[in-house]
């Protein structure tokens, strides 16, 4: 089966426990984190995780829960399929 | 190949902070098989076919939007030019068809449906004339129906009899919607050299070279280009072109991916990708501001056309490299009411109607969303249309006129059209008459294709 990946991005103010909270949600949904990194974009803390979604059944639900988590702790969390990054940056 | 961190952050920055979006996914639908001498049957067939192809557009587009995290702003429908299926219908029947289009659009949740159109650049059939006669009322009594009329092409010349009628129709449409500042005119485009696969409203229709149904995608992103240029304040103009090209390339690639995914889900063939910088009233989402970033104090000043030509060409080059099927209008739109920078240019006295006309020589599409004084006569509007059509005809490009002669408003006042259509300062027109010219009628012959200087 072809591997499908997605990118989880967190943008906002840095705070204690962000990574733990996000990875908790991912673990609950059986999603494996392949890569994780963080940086600063235009003064915003940005964290990105590449996750394996090959066998993910309820991605919509995961996305929804991440959005809610983001609202709760005051950051923006998104989950995007990786193809869009591939399309834009690879020919 | 794995995606690097800086590439990920670039994509996220473009979407979250710089308004990268898919401006529209538009399904083109052939309605020729819906023609029927019984108007009730025709209406039912038209409605059923649009709903059949269009019912999943909104839910599927929204799903793709979520999966990839790139917003799709508009979901729209374009149909066969309605004049081609009217046959022996009456004016009242034609208006009923317009209402049917409106109802179908509402029921499937799309904000605009294009194709209440006639291609009359050379001659006018019975159905064409019925459509023209019904046009003003059809636009006034519907909410989402968009209309377009082709009055000239490079190969046929300009049909001045229709140009004359269009001036009268635009005045009529404005008068019928005077309580909304002539809003009906914002849904009517007069074209020279129209394209058959344009996904952008109000000028979208499903041309006769197209199949049963097709999905065309309009990608935009003036905000992304503007931000990219802001990072290169010292670049020379060759490098400016390079920055625009690279940025547009990436935007286009995202657009094609999203368009193909939506088309696959809908089981409709993917048609073309139209890469046009289309401004919105959102902060920094402005074509005028790109020109100002290139170095003009205010859009409309000397140098505007050179800067616009550079930008438009770079957009096309970036887009053409990124996608196999670039089509539609592909270039830059310069609507006044939808671009805060253009509005400011007009208000500050930098940008005039004549300069806007000149700008359309080097970019798509034409005089777009310009509010004119209510005093502008029908023949003056026809003169404006003829000028713009001549620019298109001679330069072998699409040009268009979408102007709103706002009833009871004078030069300098502001009008609010609301929503996507924005707001515009009312502009004056030349006070000398064009009526004797317009009243001559006839056709302006097609131009030579050689001896082109």
UniProtKB/TrEMBL annotation, chain A:
<dbReference type="InterPro" id="IPR045865">
    <property type="entry name" value="ACT-like_dom_sf"/>
</dbReference>
<dbReference type="InterPro" id="IPR050990">
    <property type="entry name" value="UPF0237/GcvR_regulator"/>
</dbReference>
<dbReference type="Pfam" id="PF13740">
    <property type="entry name" value="ACT_6"/>
</dbReference>
<dbReference type="InterPro" id="IPR002912">
    <property type="entry name" value="ACT_dom"/>
</dbReference>
<dbReference type="InterPro" id="IPR022986">
    <property type="entry name" value="UPF0237_ACT"/>
</dbReference>
<feature type="domain" description="ACT">
    <location>
        <begin position="7"/>
        <end position="84"/>
    </location>
</feature>
<protein>
    <recommendedName>
        <fullName>UPF0237 protein N784_11920</fullName>
    </recommendedName>
</protein>
<comment type="similarity">
    <text>Belongs to the UPF0237 family.</text>
</comment>
Automatic annotation (TrEMBL), chain B:
<dbReference type="Pfam" id="PF05167">
    <property type="entry name" value="DUF711"/>
</dbReference>
<comment type="subunit">
    <text>Homodimer.</text>
</comment>
<comment type="similarity">
    <text>Belongs to the UPF0210 family.</text>
</comment>
<protein>
    <recommendedName>
        <fullName>UPF0210 protein N784_11925</fullName>
    </recommendedName>
</protein>
<dbReference type="InterPro" id="IPR007841">
    <property type="entry name" value="UPF0210"/>
</dbReference>
């Amino acid at each position: 089966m072809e591997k499908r990946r997605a990118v989880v991005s967190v943008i906002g103010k840095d705070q204690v426990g962000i990574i733990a909270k996000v990875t908790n949600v991912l673990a609950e949904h059986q999603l494996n984190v392949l890569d994780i990194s963080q940086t600063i974009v235009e003064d915003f803390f940005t964290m990105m995780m590449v996750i394996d979604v090959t066998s993910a059944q309820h991605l919509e639900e995961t996305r929804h829960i991440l959005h809610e988590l983001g609202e709760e702790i005051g950051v923006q969390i998104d989950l995007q399929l990786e193809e869009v990054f591939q399309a834009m940056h690879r020919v | 190949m794995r995606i690097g961190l800086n590439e990920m952050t670039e994509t996220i920055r473009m979407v979250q902070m710089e308004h990268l979006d898919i401006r529209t996914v538009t399904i083109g639908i052939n309605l020729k098989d819906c023609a029927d001498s019984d108007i009730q049957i025709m209406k039912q067939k038209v409605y059923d076919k649009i709903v059949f192809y269009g019912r999943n557009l909104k839910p599927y587009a929204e799903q793709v939007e979520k999966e990839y995290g790139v917003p799709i702003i508009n979901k729209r429908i374009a149909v066969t030019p309605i004049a081609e299926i009217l046959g022996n219908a009456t004016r009242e029947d034609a208006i009923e068809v317009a209402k049917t289009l409106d109802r179908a659009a509402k029921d499937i949740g799309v904000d605009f449906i294009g194709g209440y159109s006639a291609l009359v650049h050379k001659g006018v059939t019975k159905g064409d004339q019925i459509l023209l006669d019904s046009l003003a009322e059809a636009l006034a009594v519907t909410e989402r129906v968009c209309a377009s009329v082709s009055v000239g092409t490079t190969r046929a010349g300009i049909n001045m009899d229709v140009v004359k009628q269009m001036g009268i129709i635009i005045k009529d449409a404005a008068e019928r919607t005077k309580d909304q500042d002539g809003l009906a005119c914002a849904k009517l485009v007069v074209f020279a050299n129209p394209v058959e696969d344009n996904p952008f409203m109000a000028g979208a229709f499903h041309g006769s070279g197209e199949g049963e149904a097709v999905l065309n995608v309009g990608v935009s992103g003036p905000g992304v280009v503007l931000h990219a240029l802001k990072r290169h304040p010292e670049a020379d103009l060759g490098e400016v072109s390079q920055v625009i090209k690279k940025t547009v390339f990436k935007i286009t690639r995202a657009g094609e991916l999203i368009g193909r995914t939506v088309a696959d889900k809908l089981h409709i063939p993917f048609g073309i990708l139209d890469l046009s910088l289309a401004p919105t009233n959102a902060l920094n989402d402005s074509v005028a501001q790109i020109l100002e970033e290139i170095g003009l104090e205010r859009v409309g000043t000397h140098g505007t056309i050179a800067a616009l030509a550079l930008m438009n060409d770079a957009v096309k080059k970036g887009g053409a490299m990124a996608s196999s099927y670039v089509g539609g209008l592909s270039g830059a739109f310069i609507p006044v009411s939808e671009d805060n920078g253009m509005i400011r240019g007009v208000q500050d006295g930098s940008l005039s109607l004549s300069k806007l006309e000149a700008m359309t020589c080097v970019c798509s599409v034409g005089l777009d969303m310009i509010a004119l004084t209510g005093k502008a006569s029908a023949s003056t509007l026809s003169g404006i249309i003829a000028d713009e059509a001549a620019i298109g005809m001679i330069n072998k490009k699409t040009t268009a006129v979408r102007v709103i002669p706002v009833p009871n408003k004078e030069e300098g006042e502001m009008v609010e059209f609301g929503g996507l259509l924005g707001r515009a300062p009312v502009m004056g027109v030349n006070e000398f008459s064009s009526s004797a010219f317009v009243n001559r009628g006839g056709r302006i012959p097609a131009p030579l294709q050689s001896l082109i200087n």
